[in-house]
Amino acid sequence: MEMEKIAKVLELLTLFSDAVIILLLIIFISYIFSKKKKFLKSIARMSKNNYLEIGFIVALVATLGSLFYSEVMGYTPCKLCWYQRILMYPQTIMFGLALWKKRTYLAIESVVLSLIGLIIASYHYLLQIGLVTSSNCDAVGYSSKCSEFFTLSYGYVTIPMMAATAFALLLLAGLIQLKYQGRRFF
User: How far apart are the first and last CA of the chain?
Assistant: First the structure.
C-alpha cells in the first residue's frame, strides 16, 4: 500500500511540474511580447538565484524515482530507460557537489545532458504511446520492451513522461541560468 502512495506522489509531482513548465513557457512568450517586464524578470531572477537547489531537487527526485520503480516496484528498465538514467544520475552528483562547493557554472553541462535526455525521453514516450514504431528496442537480456507500460495516470503520465518532465525542468532552469550568466548555449 505504501508503494502505491509513493508512486502516486511521483505522478502528482509530474503533473504539477508539467503545469509549471507550461506556465514558464507562457511567461517566456509573454516576456518576448510584453512591455512590462518587471514581474517576469523577478521570476527569472528567482530561478537564477535558486538554480543549484532547483537542479539538485529535480535531479535527486528523478534519480530516486527511477530507483523506486526499478528496485522497489520491480519494473525492469528498458534500453532507453538506461540511457535516460545515464544522463540523469550524474546531474544529481553534479548539483550536489556544486551546492556544497557553492559553484554555479555547471549550467552548460546540465543543459547538454538535459537536452539529450529530453530527446531520448520524448522519443521513448512517443514510442510507448504508439506514435513512433521501432523494432530495435525489443527486450534485451533482462530488460523490458521500450513500448511496455508499467504505469499510466492522468491519461498521459508514464515513466518516460516523468523523465521528460525532469529533463525539461533542468533544461529550462539551465537556460535561465546561462542567460543571467551572460552566456549563450546556441
Answer: 47
Q: Which amino acid is at 4?
A: E
| 112-150 per-position pLDDT tens digit | 999 999 999 999 888 888 787 766 666 555 556 665 667
Whether 70 and 151 have beta carbons less than 8 Å apart is answered as no
pTM of the full structure: 0.83
d(CA 86, CA 3): 25
List the domain boundaries for the chain: 2-180
The interaxial angle of helices 79-101 and 51-67, nearest 10 deg, is 140
- The arrangement of secondary structure in 2-180, i.e. its CATH architecture, is Up-down Bundle (1.20)
Per-residue pLDDT tens digits for 6-30: 888 888 888 889 888 888 788 777 7
Reported confidence tier of residue 55, pLDDT bands at 50, 70, 90: very high
Closest CA to 179 of 54, 59, 44, 57: 44
What single letter denotes the amino acid at residue 120?
A: I
Torsion angle, CA of 44/65/100/46, rounded to 10 degrees?
Answer: 10
Residues 6+ apart with CB under 8 A from 108: 174, 178, 183, 185
